[in-house]
Each structure stands twice: as structure tokens, then as C-alpha cells.
Design brief:
heterodimer, A: about 70 residues, 434 Repressor (Amino-terminal Domain), two-stranded antiparallel ribbon, globular, B: about 200 residues, mainly alpha, 4 helices, about 70% helix
Chain lengths: ~70, ~200
């Protein structure tokens, strides 16, 4: 998927663990881990809002668009 | 949905599952009996099929569950009921195999309901298969009935009776309804999957 989640980078910048973020936003560690590794299809605005509030960042800091390579080119 | 309501539904699904399991094993037992009857009708000694042996019993067969006919065993063509027993075993096998297939698929669906995953993607496929089986049975079951009735007419020389084959429209509509339900379930499963993968 061309949308990349940069949660691990923001977490490292803030020196915050996934468990601490989980407690702060009220989302399970499993779900946050899935989000971090790009295993989810979508993220709710409410979840994004809670993560941005806890990490004091913008949605753009968490999400990145990368052009997908076309196979065979 | 309230927590207690969910628990009640799960308990109900588990009870239904147990009942289906009991019916399934009863069906397996019935299939074994039908196979034994078929083997006996094929290879059993002739004396067990002689019409005189059944002369003191009253033979009955029903037509569409409305008319009960009492043929005279002394009218039996060739004096043997072997062919009739064979056709009854074949007709019963069609019924038992159909119900076993349905029960197996239903049990698989109910397992997912009891596990609180009714919108599991595989369920739409199972309901689709049940629908197809029911639709096919709308033609097969009347066919099996007609075959047994035709064999009885021939065995008992009932020249005044003839066979009328009519597909079961109620079963056909039920099958179509299940196919439509399977498509609806497929979309429900897709939505559930999307929701499960949303954080």
C-alpha cells in the first residue's frame, strides 16, 4: 500500500513505548502494533486524533504517501 | 446489542449446534442402515424377497402424503420384491445424503455463530452451497419419489396408475432465497472484514 505509517519513528522521537501510547489513547497494543507494521486497512479519525493528541504531532507526521513502483518497469 | 442478549444468543447457538450434531450422527446411522438395506437387496437370498413371505403383512405406500394405497402382495410381478427393496434403498439414500450434506454445512455455520463470528467470510460460501443443494433437491427429491412410486406400480402391476413428475417449487424458492441470502452475507462478511482491519 502506498500509505506508510510512521508511528515507530514518531514514537522513537518522543521516547514513548507502544504500551504507554496504548494506555494514553485507549487502543490495544495489538491494534497499535498492527497499525505500526501496516497490517491495517483503515484508521478512524477518532483514533488518529487520540494518537496525535498523545504524541503532540500532526497526522502528516504519522502518515506518508510513497509512490508505488509499477512491476515490470 | 446488550451483553446478556449476546450471551443468550451464543447459548442458543450452542444448543442448536448440539441438536444438529445429534441429527447428523442419527443421519450417519440412517445412511449405514440404508447401505445395509441396499446390500441386502442386491445380494440377499431370494427367499427373503418372495411375495408369499409378505402376504400376511399389509403393504402401504403414500402418494404425496395424501393417498395411502394398500396393494396386494399376491399381485407382485415375477413373485419377487427384490427390485422394490432396491429402489427404496436408492430413494432413501438420496434423502439421507441430502440431509447429511445440509446438516454438515449448517453445523459449520453454527460453529462460527457460537464462536461469535457469524460474518466469517466462509459462511457466505457455505450458505451458497446449501442454497444450491436445496435448489437441486427441488428436482432430485421428487425424482427419487417418482422412481420409487414407478417401481411400486410396476412391481404390483397397478396398470391404472401412472407417474407424474413435478419439481418441488417450495424447495426451489427456498434454494433461491438461500442463494440471495448468501450474496447478502458475502457483503456483510466483507464489511465485517473491513471493520476488523480498521483501528
Amino acid at each position: 500500500m502506498p500509505i506508510i505509517v510512521r508511528l515507530d519513528r514518531v514514537l522513537a522521537d518522543r521516547k514513548m513505548s507502544l504500551t504507554a501510547l496504548s494506555e494514553a489513547v485507549g487502543v490495544s497494543v495489538v491494534n497499535l502494533s498492527n497499525l505500526k507494521t501496516g497490517k491495517v486497512k483503515a484508521i478512524r479519525f477518532s483514533t488518529l486524533e487520540a494518537i496525535c493528541r498523545a504524541l503532540e504531532c500532526q497526522p502528516g507526521d504519522l502518515l506518508e504517501y510513497a509512490e508505488e513502483e509499477v512491476s515490470g518497469s | 446489542m446488550q451483553g446478556t442478549e449476546v450471551r443468550t444468543n451464543i447459548k442458543f447457538a450452542q444448543t442448536v449446534n448440539k441438536v444438529l450434531k445429534a441429527f447428523y450422527w442419527a443421519g450417519i446411522a440412517a445412511l449405514l442402515l440404508v447401505v445395509l438395506l441396499g446390500l441386502f437387496a442386491l445380494f440377499g437370498p431370494d427367499r427373503y424377497f418372495a411375495a408369499e413371505r409378505y402376504a400376511r403383512y399389509t403393504f402401504t405406500f403414500e402418494l404425496n402424503g395424501i393417498i395411502r394405497y394398500h396393494p396386494d402382495p399376491e399381485q407382485v410381478a415375477g413373485g419377487s420384491l427384490r427390485g422394490l427393496f432396491r429402489s427404496i434403498a436408492l430413494g432413501a439414500a438420496v434423502y439421507v445424503l441430502f440431509f447429511l450434506y445440509l446438516l454438515r454445512r449448517l453445523r459449520q455455520v453454527m460453529d462460527t455463530v457460537a464462536a461469535q463470528k457469524p460474518f466469517y467470510r466462509g459462511n457466505s460460501k457455505r450458505i451458497h452451497e446449501i442454497g444450491r443443494a436445496v435448489l437441486a433437491s427441488a428436482f432430485l427429491i421428487p425424482g427419487a419419489n417418482s422412481f420409487v412410486a414407478w417401481k411400486m406400480i410396476r412391481t404390483f402391476n397397478l396398470s391404472e396408475l401412472s407417474i407424474l413428475y413435478t419439481p418441488d417449487l417450495k424447495l426451489a424458492f427456498t434454494g433461491l432465497l438461500l442463494l440471495i441470502l448468501a450474496w447478502v452475507f458475502d457483503y456483510g462478511g466483507y464489511l465485517q472484514e473491513e471493520m476488523d482491519q480498521t483501528v
